[in-house]
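ok so I'm stuck.
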Amino acid sequence: MSDSRRKGLDERNLVDIVKYRTIWFGISLAVTIPGFIAIIMCCMQFHAPLKPGIDFTGGSILQYQFDKPVTLEAVHKVLNECGFEGSQVQQATVGGKDAVIMRTKSIDQESQKAKLDNKLVAELGPFKPISVDKVTATIGPELLTNGLLALVVTFAGMVGYISYRFKFDYALCAIAALFHDVLVLCGIFAGLGLILGTEVDSLFISAVLTVIGFSVHDTIVVFDRIRENAKYVGSKFVDPKTGEERKKTFGDIANDSVNQTLTRSIYTSLTVIITLLSLYLFGGVTTKDFVLAMLIGIISGTYSSIFNASCLLVWWRDFKGKSSGKGGSASKKAVATSA
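replied:
not stuck anymore, here's the structure
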């Protein structure tokens, strides 16, 4: 990168992100601490970090053919009024005719089913029952254990790759930002489960895995730019704020790098957020929780990649430099070790 280009980048830095890192960390704590408390409350109330849906607890599947066309929203309304909140409803074709498939929590008593049937007839008209089945949980303990094991292996692989491609402290900061995103997502859904009765299902697991991939991807883009610019640590430049000549610290390099990728990160995330917001507002009822989880995860992932990961890396380099008596991130040794 030429000196003139570096100077232009320094002059157009509009956000001094590293300087206000305590504010960014404080915002994250303000979101994650209530979420962590909500997760603990869910563990006490539901014996799980989040309120489990019927994919985890099992339930009943009812297939009905109505004489008149019905909407999924109307069926959901009836189910909620009968005490079957969080049920999944979808339309299908059975025997060449439209049918409604309702997946609810387990219906153990005939009186519960009679109450539901009477309410459906009163609100939506007569129907023909095709099948009524009781099912076990589709995601059992063994599959859940395997999923957690796969998650641990994924984290280990990420740490290994980022450590090889960058440095070990880069990997730790990226994983910390990743944990932040997962905790924000799970914390918000834990709160929704306590307040609104929102349940999580297999789609939520898919959303979490997608958020993990997005978070690490966006963080690596920022870290790669920091690695490219790290060779300029210790180089002289004129501070646009004070007008004095001084040497670049690792914090200056991180701040320049984040600003260089800031527009790209925001534009990329904004296109995804607009798409997800449209799906949430105008999409089907059965995918609303999945889309909401994706929205929360993408927003949190973008925030952590810009404001948390790089600031955490600078804080760690400063702490390591001070503890070793090297003078923090402005030390000459940082030139050799920051790439």
